[in-house]
Amino acid sequence: MSVNNYNNNPSSDSSNNDHSSSDPNIYFRNLSLAYFVAQPMEFLTKHKRLREECLKHGNLEGHYIEGILAFFVEKDKSKGFFHLRQAAIGGYRDGWYLLGLLMLALERFYKGEKDFDKLQWKTNLSVSDHCKARVMKTLSTICGIMNAGYYTAMVNLECLTKCDQKNSSNHICDGCYYYKQLKEFVEFAMNQYN
C-alpha cells in the first residue's frame, strides 16, 4: 500500500490534494522499514515492489534487510556483504555490527575488528549492546543461520585472544570484546539450529 500511495503526506493540509511535487526519491529513501527489520522474511516474500523501490532509492534499512536476506536466506555472501556495507556506510549502525560479526565468523578477524570499531564501542559500549540486541532479534526470525565454519572461527579467535580476564565482567580488552561478540553469535546461531 505504501508503494502505491507515496504521494499521501499526512502532515500536509488535507484540503490541498495536489501532491504532484512529492519526490519518490525522498519518500523511499526515508521510509521507515522497522517492521521489516523485525520480520525480514515478509520483505522477501510479500512486498517485492516496495523492496525494489526502497533499494533503488538508497533506503538504509532496505539495504540492511536485503543484506540479511541475501546472506542468510539466499546464501549469496557477495550480495549480502554489498547491501550490508551500503547500509553501514550510510550510517546504519546495525549494519556495522552485523558486518563485523560476519567478518569475525568468516575468520577475517582484522576486517571484523575494524567494522566493530566503527561503533566506537571502546567509548560507549551501550551502542554496541543495542545493535547486538536488534541484530539478534532480526536473526531470530530466520532459520538455519548456523555455519560450521563459525564455530571454527570462534575457536581460532579464542586462541588468538591473549587475555587472562576473559571471564571478568568489569574489564574488557579489545581481544575479549571481539571474541565475546563472536562467541555469543555462535551460541545464538547454534540454538537457532536446534
From TrEMBL:
Entries under InterPro entries matching the protein: At1g67623-like, At2g35280_TPR_dom
Highest rank taxon of the organism: Eukaryota
Signal peptide bounds: none
Residue ranges of every copy of the At2g35280-like TPR domain listed in the record: 45-138
Region named Disordered: 1-21
One Pfam family it belongs to: TPR_27
Official protein name in the record: At2g35280-like TPR domain-containing protein
